[in-house]
Design goal:
alpha+beta, 28% helix
Length: 228
């Protein structure tokens, strides 16, 4: 029997860390993210170990620590923003999907960002994680910016992670307690200036109908709201 601690890793490569199914463990072997369908970026400093850690426990509930985890269900969070900003009447597509449709006379919401075109620069020194552009026949009609942010982690969870990595059906005992921490102050310190600086730029564009969107874990948002 596996005994998991109160302070623990919640998801590794998109699955519970003690999930020994072939479906879950194949992602450990591939070092792949199931949410972006690409190589996981959650690695140690010298890139020798890909940890694949998506979420961990916190005093306020389980919390996402990797922004790519916020792209579940084929970027459903971005699709919800597209509907909120532009309505239901337009197809949401990636940059690659747009190329063969670029001259068909229809309006599309084209997602520009990670693995879909490239990040769009904002002024000279800023960039957006995503820009959702309403485009018709190659011409920009409207757009909105999207920033995606999770939370920085402190400490380490190496013992816990390695125990889960080497877990097998014959294991019986305690999983080591994770020694991670969450840097709430830092995420708030970075988030608020971005809201102000980028919000000002977007507010001055006549092509922006709905301003600037931020995607953050629910716990981070609630914690920010309680911050004095």
């Amino acid at each position: 029997m596996v005994n998991r601690p109160n302070k623990d890793l919640i998801e590794i490569f998109g699955y519970a860390p003690d999930d020994l199914s072939t479906e879950a463990r194949s992602l450990w072997n591939l070092e792949a993210c199931p949410f972006t369908q690409s190589k996981c970026t959650k690695a140690n400093h010298d890139k020798s170990i890909v940890y694949g850690t998506c979420s961990v426990t916190s005093p306020y509930g389980d919390c996402i620590i990797c922004p790519n985890r916020l792209y579940e269900n084929n970027y459903s969070s971005l699709k919800r923003i597209a509907v909120d900003a532009f309505g239901h009447d337009f197809d949401f597509i990636t940059f690659n999907e747009y190329i063969p449709k670029r001259s068909d006379g229809k309006e599309y919401i084209v997602a520009l960002g990670m693995s879909s075109g490239k990040e769009v620069k904002l002024a000279r020194k800023l960039s957006m994680d995503w820009v959702l552009a309403k485009v018709k026949n190659g011409k920009l009609q409207q757009y909105v910016g999207v920033e995606v942010q999770s939370i920085d982690i402190t400490g380490n969870y190496r013992d816990s992670w390695h125990t889960y990595k080497n877990l097998n059906t014959s294991f019986s005992g305690d999983i080591p307690r994770s020694e991670h921490g969450l840097n709430w102050a830092n995420v708030h310190k970075r988030l608020i200036p971005q809201l102000i600086r980028k919000g000002v730029v977007y507010s001055n564009s006549k092509l922006v109908p709905s301003g600037l969107y931020f995607i953050v874990p629910d716990i981070v948002y609630k914690k920010l709201g309680r911050r004095n």
